[in-house]
Amino acid sequence: MAAPSNKMMCALCFCEILNKKSYRKTDTLKDQTVTLLTLGISDSQILCYSCVNKLNKLKKLDYDILTKVEKLKCERNELYTQLSSLPGAKKISAEVSKGRNNCEHTPKSLEKRKRNVLTPTPKSARSIKKQIPQNRETPQSRRRLITFGEPLKQQVDKSTQTVMTDQDFEVKVTVKYKGIERSRKVQDDVWKAVVKQILNNNSASMKTLAKNVKCRDQMLDVVKRKIQGEASEICKQRNAIFKVCDNKDLKNFDVRKCTESLEETAPYLYQVLSSVAGKKAHTITAFSTLMYGRNMKNSILQYITGLTVDSCGITKEGLQVLHDLGVTVSPRSILRKKNELVLEQEEKIKQTVTAYVQQREKAVVTEAELHAEVRQHDEATCTIPVDENVYPPIEMLGDNLDITITPSKITSDAQRKSLHWFLVMMKQKKITVEDFNSMQVREQRDIMTLPKENWLANHHQTGSLIDNMVHSIIHVLVKYIEFLKPLKCDIPLYIPHEFIEKTQTKSVFLNCELIEASENSASGMISIMERVHDLAVPHTRQENKVIERIVFGGDVLTNERAFTAQQNMQLNKSEVDRFAGIIHRPEGLHRQMNFLLVIDTY
DNA sequence: ATTTCGGGGTAAACCGTTCC
DNA sequence: GGAACGGTTTACCCCGAAAT
């Protein structure tokens, strides 16, 4: 739209710009106008990105040259001041050094500057202090008792050793090494206390030492260095405490494990933070924010928080504020991660639901083909190709998800809104007919001709029910009655049965779809059933014939409505349009309620 | 010196609203 | 009904910091 002609050319390299996104107008390169002018490029021309990159690099190099020169100058000056502060170098006249220092860089001005009234500047106390040589070794012959904190006159005076003190607590340290004896009278109160402690306990307390400001700063330095080391240790690749290596990490993040590994990797920093915060979760939050500030790869908690608040409906501005605070990653990254997660979920659905459905459909088709072939050639030479991956059968669950949005100000446009959605989930079956011995599987029978006594529990079934009830009652007793509590460990946790290993494994459970339809209306329920049918029921795509029926569970209301929808569609011709591939089943709590009702009536 | 990853800039694409 | 406009999303690229 904005392009002046059909073909866009780079003004510098004359290459045609093929990708419409990779060019820059020279008007936008304001900071490089001078460079562009020297190259003969005027305003409102177009440059390809590789030329723009080169220009940027040029700019960076210019900047680098400036900063490097500046840095070198600083370094030189620093070294020079160091050298000039050395005792031997002091005699060199300031003028010479000054001249040498400046002649290269500062061009002499033509006019002589007027002398400032304040010059020569009175020397600051600090510079005077610097000139007094410190820690200069006294020649051995002159090594005597040195007193600190007293005027120089006294040092000259020979009577220092007999000076009278009005304090009754006096400390004098004598050190003997290599045959030389040196002693010093300690005036500083902190040092006095430390020496006293050494006398008393043969150890100095750090608490006392810390009373000296210099010592405290040094201690702080030590701790700081230690903590910095710990922080860089956390950042390292092998310590992936706060890193997002896999999207599964986001789901499996465990505060307890995180605390443990932090206590191990960074004990000092952890103790410092937890001494301030107290609460474990707060400490971890502080830790995470700090580590995110140091290295943006440490972003697992930021991602979790960001995704959570995003799902609660935070705006982009809100996310930006939280990102600036270091609590979440940027809104853009959240968006990116969300897309990634959606793709992953789609992949998962494909691998379980779609794969199973396709497998069933394919099996029927190949069987039909085989039959046709057999009929044609009368030779059963080919065998049914068996897929190596046998996908476990699935069942579907669903429930309505209603949200009411109340605007802060109700106007004619902004009214209370109710959103009705339907969430469809998938669960992989753990125990199937194939797991039973063929002996145990009851043969298929017509419900209408079944003898009436089959509806009553037989002796064996009642016995097993009573056994199981006993098991449940024992669990309740052991839980609540004090003197029975010690017996808890002797009672099996679960009622033993032959599939206990299978039921112990974690279920495969997936959110499949959020359908924007209300189950309250018949049309909504029908569209929901259509989606479920399309997604999860294996059927022949040409004749719309159901190959296998799938359980579709939900609460009693959903069940009722699904059943009504199925009945409403009975006039349709094909099986798929009649929703024949769905078996209704009430779920969870409702089933338990039904069970209890049965027991109650017993 | 190279690699990795998140932040951020830019422009196209897209979407909804308003105006003529 | 379509142009104009404004806001949002998305793809692409570069940059910088830290790790390797």
TrEMBL record:
A family per Pfam: DUF6589
Spans annotated as Disordered: 116-142
Domain called DUF6589: residue spans: 454-596
InterPro entries per record: DUF6589 (IPR046496)
Superkingdom in the source lineage: Eukaryota
Protein name: DUF6589 domain-containing protein
Natural source organism: Pinctada imbricata
Lineage, top ranks: Eukaryota, Metazoa, Spiralia, Lophotrochozoa, Mollusca
